[in-house]
Amino acid sequence: MKVNPRVQKTYEALFLLEDLREILRETSPDHKLNREQEERFKKILSELKKNLEEIENNEGDARIRYITDRIELRAKEEEFININPIQAGGRLTREGRKALIAYGDGYSICDYCFKPFRLDFIKRPPVHDFYQELAEFVGMDQARVVRGARRGFQIVASSLLRKGDIVLISSLGHYSLALAIESVGAIWKEIPLNEKNIITAENTQKKIESVKEEMGKFPSLIAISHIDYMFGNEHDVSGIAKIAHEYEIPFLYNGAYTVGVMPVNGKKIGADFVVGSGHKSMASPAPTGVLAVTDEFSKKVFKTTELSGDVTGREFGIKEVYLLGCTVMGAPLIAMMASFPMVKERVKHWDEELKKSNYFIREFLKIRGNRVVSEMPRKHTLSRVDSTASFDKIAKKHKRRGYFLHDELAKRKITGIFPGATKQFKLNTYGLTWDQIKYLGNAFREIAEEYGI
Amino acid sequence: MKVNPRVQKTYEALFLLEDLREILRETSPDHKLNREQEERFKKILSELKKNLEEIENNEGDARIRYITDRIELRAKEEEFININPIQAGGRLTREGRKALIAYGDGYSICDYCFKPFRLDFIKRPPVHDFYQELAEFVGMDQARVVRGARRGFQIVASSLLRKGDIVLISSLGHYSLALAIESVGAIWKEIPLNEKNIITAENTQKKIESVKEEMGKFPSLIAISHIDYMFGNEHDVSGIAKIAHEYEIPFLYNGAYTVGVMPVNGKKIGADFVVGSGHKSMASPAPTGVLAVTDEFSKKVFKTTELSGDVTGREFGIKEVYLLGCTVMGAPLIAMMASFPMVKERVKHWDEELKKSNYFIREFLKIRGNRVVSEMPRKHTLSRVDSTASFDKIAKKHKRRGYFLHDELAKRKITGIFPGATKQFKLNTYGLTWDQIKYLGNAFREIAEEYGI
Predict the structure, then answer these.
(1) pTM of the predicted structure, to 2 decimals
(2) Which residues numbered 315-334 in B keep a CB inside 8 Å of some CB on A?
(3) pLDDT at position B69, please?
């Protein structure tokens, strides 16, 4: 498939500038160029000039396919409308991408790490302030950046659970939550969905009671996604938190699909812990997440080290045991920080995202046979749809089988649905402009029309 | 301090291209520009052209100080010779930086994630092959990328240790190893250094025996750095592994300062586990690391999930419990992969790095009063030096106190020693060219001369 010349040439220019930057690194600090470097420098500059012309005129053949070895160029977000269910909220902002360029090197944000030598005390870049703002952003007392939401789950699990303890999760709970619980030797049990695929306070209470009856003890933790990954349905986290507290069971709010895209106030919901995902919903690179807690639990979850050296007597001060000290030290953190002002802004426009989500879904439903498996109207941009009675009928007779839909979408520069899926699949409209939303709706309808659905 | 115009303008050009890329994202897939976008586009292009001229002529005022909000531009590697002890081996390669640009978005490397849905099965980009090569690279049977070396320690600790178990670490063991052990409820004990600040097999054996005597049980794990973070000394990992095996105690080789800079063959050393650090020694962004094991331990450490849903009956297949499933999914992994060919190459030139390290140290020792606290000759590029009898004497009378040395080095565009330190400090010459090494040696001698040392 032909790549848009402008996209291609923009990448080429970015890479040429990295070639140039490499010379600056080789020759630092005086930047005297030897003959070979001088020639290289000139060649890069002349190619760059050509590139700019090509960008201007939207022309030119692709010179780069692989960045290096077998790593292809990736231009999904420039070339396509990407409706991948898990990728939408993690697309970087422009500022995030710039920060990544400047702070890519390993320990890049540790230049000004002074006593007490802990990531969240760094003031330059303003990591310290960022942590404060993060806590406020999710309506909790304290926050830490962690190496992904799953590490957030595990940190809570490590600090709270003993072997054999029981944790209630949703029947739609994410596997990483289940693994985090299993990794500390605890056991997860599922709260059943109601007939609308929603976890309710009522079912939570029933499950608490049945666990007590069956296992002779109450669950030690309840951990529920506000929005699940399967349907993008909203679950009654406030009601569940209330029940949890009646039984004095701590409640973990899983905001992997909410923190960073919609307003979240953990304390208002009644959460003891809020976990969010940077790469899922905070316009950040993986592996990043946020773990926020109330003051009540902060000492336990953010416990500092208690052991000391039997030979040397040394201690590790205020290093936090379950966090393993500093968490995300480099590129991903700075990109998360750089994206944050925009993230704080964008959650205010969640209503608009829902309008776009529902608009697209309405368009999608105009195709005969199409269904939406998620709750309606949509309360999230992630939706699970069903085209068993439409696209899948075509797939049955098409020589490319289920891949035909993926092909047809790709032809229209739309990507992100699971290749081959025509029965049920997920998509996420988050962050698309109205033009893109309309284009997307039209594309599906056009395909349906073309195949006589 | 005035930034070199070329450095500044290269950054500006990179950022302008990101501004341009943002337009391509907004207007994807047809890239029709509205009037406002058209104007923005033209403005960016014209600024870019100006930038190229300025780069060519090495001129122009800085237009960017902050990337966004309070995040400053970082040009340490372009402006300075950076001898920061922990940053040298984690500087990105040119290919790593390019990959980071293309794959910054959250789940960027998951585009082609198909059954069985696990990171290390992804073939495009070639994650699967990378994992194989990684295992081979460190001379072990199986490898996984993990979210930092500390997570590597913790994964081994989780899979091997029970509450109250004892782990022997070095008296120079890193705090993150200590925390990883503490985080699973186990206890770390220290092996004493010998008079040369080296951990020996003999002292290891003594400690095993004394633990047995005192605690009534043998240690469950021995975890030792090949090169420590404090002196950059080499410890007798082969001898220690041999003793460990005599007692049937598993041995973890901590290669945070070796894997990626010097050749490492885990099995030859006798390691059951090899842990490396991406951001410390593999030219990768944080938080990345490698955990490699022998076949004997792979089932235990990379255990797959065993629980299933009590309501839904669902299972999570081959997801690895202690790894929490997929580990480093995005930008940091792709940069690690992109840097890897160069990393494989560079370990072959470790001898040359040692030559440069020892050359610099000899120059440094020509200054009267200077000492080296690390073992001699240097077997690593990280060294701890002592200038109590030279620079520190100046510091005592200088109005900037110990900061004078940092200031003088900064004036000469050298960065990375701890600000204010004039008694003992660490530095790392890894990756510097011979020109830079000589410049560095001269700079120290020049400062000494200037202050009459």
Answers:
(1) 0.98
(2) 316, 319-322, 324-325, 327-334
(3) 83
